[in-house]
Design a protein that fits this description.
The chain is α/β, with parallel strands linked by helices. The model has no long low-confidence stretch (mean pLDDT 90). The protein has 7 helices and 10 strands. The protein has a 6-stranded mixed beta sheet with strand order 6-7-8-3-9-10. Strands 2-1-4-5 form a 4-stranded antiparallel beta sheet, covered by helices on one side.
Length: 221
């Protein structure tokens, strides 16, 4: 589902050159739940952003869902990302003045899905994450765990092949974190969704199919 070959990422300023990723080679088959661990600043989020086509490598090739992506035409990449990828962020990124169901519908707006179908798909996604009775609430009325459930619903509403999750349990207590992890595991096991998760939590990482570790931009395990 995801294949990275010889990925290097270098950030340059006028005076400093920083190697963020060094010769990463990684193959993630369809249906795998992979976790990525490592100390802060080791390149985890950079790697996730490259998989998500948010950032581009300095060198190397990317293949996602059978498509090689040699160039970064902004319009075509945005369309591909909207259709194939779902994103879950540690800080939720919900729009506070939109209702929960309107937040979840947002990715479908960019596909020009009709309002009736959009609403039905958003309701289905919210039911899957246990928020059937919260659809008309606003983000400010929810707990942290509930906000992350909304973020998951928004990520899955377009039925993506791949979910990329950056510290999805990082802002939650252990109980809420386990609930969120259970939702991700169900998506992986019952629907076959490929999931890549960055985490600092060893106990969460151990629940996934495979764990890799980064250190100073290098894959060490």
């Amino acid at each position: 589902m995801i294949k990275l070959q010889n990925i290097n990422k270098v950030y340059r300023t006028k005076t400093v050159e920083t190697l963020a990723l060094n010769n990463i080679n990684l193959t993630i088959p369809a249906g795998e739940f992979l976790s990525i661990m490592g100390p802060s600043g080791c390149g985890k989020s950079t790697l996730l952003n490259i998989m998500g086509l948010i950032d581009e490598p300095s060198e190397g090739s990317i293949e996602i869902a059978g498509q090689t992506l040699p160039d970064y035409n902004a319009k075509s990449i945005a369309k591909f990302r909207n259709e194939k990828l779902g994103f879950i962020f540690q800080s939720f990124h919900l729009i506070n003045d939109l209702s929960i169901i309107d937040n979840v519908e947002l990715p479908l707006l960019y596909r020009r899905v009709g309002s009736k179908e959009r609403k039905a798909l958003a309701e289905e996604a919210l039911i899957k994450v246990g928020l059937k009775n919260r659809m008309q609430h606003f983000p400010g009325q929810l707990s942290g765990g509930q906000k992350q459930r909304v973020a998951i619903a928004r990520a899955i509403v377009g039925q993506p092949d791949i979910i990329l999750a950056d510290e999805p349990t990082g802002n939650l207590d252990s109980s809420m974190g386990n609930e969120i992890m259970d939702i991700l595991l169900r998506l992986n096991q019952e629907q076959g969704t490929t999931i890549v998760m960055v985490t600092h939590d060893e106990s969460m990482a151990r629940k996934t199919n495979r764990l890799i570790r980064l250190f100073d931009g290098n894959q060490v395990q």
